Amino acid sequence: MIFRDRTDAGRRLAALLGAYAQRRDTLVLGLPRGGVPVAYEVARALGAPLDIIIVRKLGVPAEPELAMGAIASGGVRVLNNAVIASMGVSPEAVEAVTARERRELERRERVYRGGRPAPEIADRTVILVDDGIATGATIRAAVMALRQLHPARIVIATPVAAPSTCAELRPLVDDLICAQSPEDLYGIGFWYERFPQLSDNELRAYLAAAWQEDGELAPDARPVAEG
Questions:
Q1: Alpha carbon distance 158, 129 (integer Å)
Q2: What does the H/E/C string look like for 117-144?
Q3: What is residue 196's predicted lDDT score, i.e. its pLDDT?
Q4: Where are the beta strands (DSSP E) in 10-152?
Q5: Which 3-state string (H, E, C) describes 101-112?
Q6: Are 119 and 149 in contact (CB under 8 A)?
Q7: What is the mean pLDDT of the chain?
Q8: pTM score
Q9: Residue 160: how many CA atoms within 13 Å on its side-chain side?
Q10: Which of 67, 74, 192, 211 is the most buried (most CB within 10 A)?
Q11: Quick check: helix, strand or coil at residue 44?
């Protein structure tokens, strides 16, 4: 199954999430940027509020691609002490990397939210949405961050993901919904006819269309279509 675009993917994914529809405790969180158009359609279909969670990897100074932890929206930090110890990263270096990445996270929060406060997570069913999952590193960090905010349930929902990644993620959450899980993933974009990069302005348009004063999804609002 090839999705036309992220809007199509979100609608197909939403059809698999009916158990979470019209529930007062449900919150849909999109992972910027590509997860937001998918999450927008999921939130519309479920009658649930839409928000975002921003995750920033904390890379080892000598090997930035190697994660020694992550920070996320809500002031959460998760550290991998085993990596920190094995790589000999000093506490001062950990704090320096954290401070740098937190500045970028806060910048994105300002750009995307425009002063809107982060949603309440405690005791809610949180559906974490991305447009596809390859290695799972980012969404795993988001799950670890959310756990520290005490949700009632965490659900991962994605249009496409590798079977091995799903198997690794499933024990970490309460539910995992994947529209398709091909053995040969190749890349997330391979499963979309249109898979454009999303700009900050386009992301803000999705959020603006969704947010009202009470935080519920605006029923008649719709951002400009992708691409």
A1: 6
A2: CCCCCCCCEEEEECCCECCCHHHHHHHH
A3: 95
A4: 26-30, 50-52, 55-60, 63-72, 76-79, 125-129
A5: HHHHHHHHHHHH
A6: no
A7: 90
A8: 0.85
A9: 22
A10: 192
A11: helix
